Amino acid sequence: MSQNQFLLHDHQTPIRLQAERVALYRQGEIIEAYNEKNEVYYLFFYKCKFLTAAKPNRLRRKSYIEHAFKKGMVFQAPHPFISQILSTNDSFHILSLQQLVKKLTATYTPQEKVFILTFFESFFPKKHLFTEMTSTFYEYRRNGQMFLGYQIVRILMDFAPKNSLVKQLASDVNFSKYTTLYNQNSKEIIAKDHIFVEKTLYAQIENEQCFLQLAAHLKKEFRWLDLIALYLTKLANTPSTAYYQPLINLLEHHFNKQEIELILEQLSCQLPTFLPLQQDLFNYYVQTHNVEAVLKMMKTHHFKLTSTQARTLGDILEQIDVDAEVIHPELLTTLLKAVLKHFPQKAEQLLTKYVIALLKTQELSYIKDWLNSFKEDHKNLQIIRKIDTMQRLNDNLEDMYSLGELYYQLKQHEKAVECFSWEMELNPTDPKPLQWLAKLYREMGMEHQSEGYRQLCINIQKRA
User: Fold this and answer.
1) Facing residues of 46 across strands?
2) Cβ atoms within 10 Å of 59's Cβ, excluding its own
């Protein structure tokens, strides 16, 4: 499958999906994906662990999923976050509410189970979700565990704030001391109710102190994906090395070069003038051999290559398949000059290679002008003298034989055929052009034509 494609199983039926975006919101992650009929599915995760998936009829207003995509940290595919979340889960199956509750009960704390159920307001009947949540509350109250029960009440206050039972519980005098602690964000609440704490900090993420506390909280829980997303979001709104350096450290620890390049590339669109980011992106383009991107950044930002970078790109230019890669001549000039400034000994080899490539689409006059920009520093190169000679010969039909030989040296067989064909017409009794045409057609794999010119050459030699 291609990047961000995966299978979702509805009972025994596999559904091929393509991820389009992911939202990270509080402890949850939601991947939005589409099938071949362009129908949408949502995959739900809690701290990157798969829960279930659902196909919506409609999304409720002010529901968790709406908040996730409007207020959460959203990243468009293709993105390494999506690949990371998908790759750390073995399989994806759609569960019924009963199956989901059973799974949550076995895996998470009662508070986490109730909070996770709030994710599904648009997919399961709200009254069924509410019944499951309140049953957890009543169990705590029967056991006299009032503080744990009140944690459930706080979740219900977000989930169904207008419900009469929720209003009654929220104002219950038995919970008044806990209400005070929550309203004061006391240390006891911060230590014991991480769901509430994260909600509170996330709502005030623009506040520097809240941002730092949330970052510390995520680091403590080893939730590095959420932490990277947090820094990306903060940096996009407030470009600063104070946020950028921790981000780079996290990226380098958890992602490979290609993944980092993609993340920085998307961030770069939001921060086109933030120089530390642009410089790092340029370095990654060099490391991942993204020649076209390197060329564009050299032109856009006037970046200069270090000796190490020049060596790397010089090696790439030597190895690149000019038949498969298309590089604009103007950008190529910029890159070659930067490389040859550090390694002038590569000039003959590299310029010859790219002259051969350019000759396939450009005229001699264009190649001559293109090489002029290198003459000042490399005036004694054989390739420059050769193109100058070819340009001079090109204007004289009597020099087609010599021009054909030079085209052959530069691997331009078709143009060499044109030259020797002209020479054959001008000197029909000379066997040499025929010998060349037989040789050229043979090397081009055109055996029938090659044999014809070979026989013609033999006949001319017999008559001589």
Assistant:
1) 28, 49
2) 15
Residue 294 domain-assigned (yes or no)? no
Domain identity same for 5 and 99: yes
Q: Please confirm whether the linkage preceding 56 is cis (ω < 30° from 0).
A: no
Look at residues 256, 288, 320 and tell me which one is the last residue of a structural domain: 288
- Residue range 311-345, pLDDT digits in tens: 888 888 888 887 776 677 777 888 888 899 999 99
Same domain as 2, residue 100: yes
What average pLDDT is seen over the chain?
Answer: 91
Please write the tens of the pLDDT for every residue from 258-313: 999 999 999 999 999 999 999 999 999 988 888 888 888 888 888 888 888 888 88
Which SS3 state, helix, strand or coil, does residue 230 take? helix
Residue 299 falls inside a structural domain: no
pLDDT the model gives residue 3: 65
**How large a percentage of the chain has pLDDT more than 70?**
98
Report how far residue 373's alpha carbon sits from residue 22's, in angstroms, rounded to the nearest whole number: 48
Whether residue 453 has pLDDT greater than 90: no
* pTM for the predicted model, two decimal places: 0.78
Q: Name which residue leads in pLDDT, 293 or 153.
A: 153
pLDDT in tens, 108-118: 999 999 999 99
Q: Which of 51, 167, 159 is nearest to 114 (CA)?
A: 159
Smallest CA-to-CA distance from 154 within 191, 195, 119 is with 195
Token pair listed for 184: 């004061």
Please give the torsion angle defined by the CA atoms of residues 379, 383, 387 and 392, in that order, rounded to the nearest 10 degrees: 70
CB 136 within 8 A of CB 148: no
Residue 100 and residue 129 share a domain: no
- Cβ atoms within 10 Å of 38's Cβ, excluding its own: 7
Q: Give the 3-state secondary structure of residue 288.
A: coil
CB-based burial of residue 296 (10 Å sphere; 0-12 exposed, 13-18 middle, 19+ buried)? Answer: middle
Contact 334, 299 (CB under 8 A): yes
CB contact burial 122-157 (16+ within 10 A = b; e otherwise): bbbebeebbebbbebbeebbeeeebebbbbbbbbbe
In terms of residue numbers, what domain contains 463?
396-464
How many Cβ atoms sit within 10 Å of the Cβ of residue 245? Answer: 12
